[in-house]
Design brief:
With 175 residues, the protein is mainly α. It is built from 4 helices and no strands. The longest helix has 37 residues.
């Protein structure tokens, strides 16, 4: 039988706040870039400058996303260590964070560099073989980012739930 260190409300709340801030920055950045910044830049800045600018922005954000993922996962480990017995919701939150992290790393280490390389090589979406590959990678990055957001929103809700859940009574105490 595994024993757990009795969780304290202050510790659980602090871990949740750290995790929620990391998830909020990560998901909020994805939403802001994908739904606001990229469409405006691509509509108002002439090509290829628009693609060059957004490639730099997304590459910079990839580092932010991976840093936020690291913080969120460290907070998850702290929950496992100091948050009391794990519930199904805790396991689902952990799986969501691991999944979102895998997607962020995939985008940051494979898709963004691939897109940047095609842009540097002069690829234009929908034109020629390189343009078709650029379009394929771009659509894949969009789909993975949307999946990342869904997982992050689920993890966010489950983290709020963890922070607001009553703590188990101390071991050996009367009800």
């Amino acid at each position: 039988m595994q024993t757990y260190r009795q969780p304290s409300r202050a510790v659980v709340t602090t871990i949740a706040i750290v995790q929620l801030l990391a998830i909020a920055l990560w998901a909020g950045g994805l939403l802001a870039l994908g739904a606001i910044v990229a469409p405006i830049v691509f509509r108002t800045v002439p090509a290829p400058t628009s693609a060059d600018a957004m490639t730099l922005v997304f590459r910079r954000f990839d580092g932010v996303a991976i840093a936020c993922a690291t913080i969120a996962l460290v907070a998850e480990a702290a929950f496992a260590h100091r948050g009391g017995p794990a519930s199904r919701a805790d396991l689902v939150r952990g799986v969501c964070l691991v999944g979102a992290t895998v997607l962020a790393i995939t985008i940051g280490s494979w898709l963004s560099p691939g897109i940047a390389s095609l842009h540097r090589g002069g690829a234009v979406r929908h034109l020629g073989e390189a343009g078709l590959e650029l379009d394929r990678l771009h659509h894949l990055a969009e789909r993975l980012a949307k999946g990342e957001i869904v997982l992050l929103l689920a993890a966010f809700g489950l983290s709020v739930s963890k922070a607001s859940r009553p703590l188990p009574p101390p071991t050996g105490s009367l009800p």
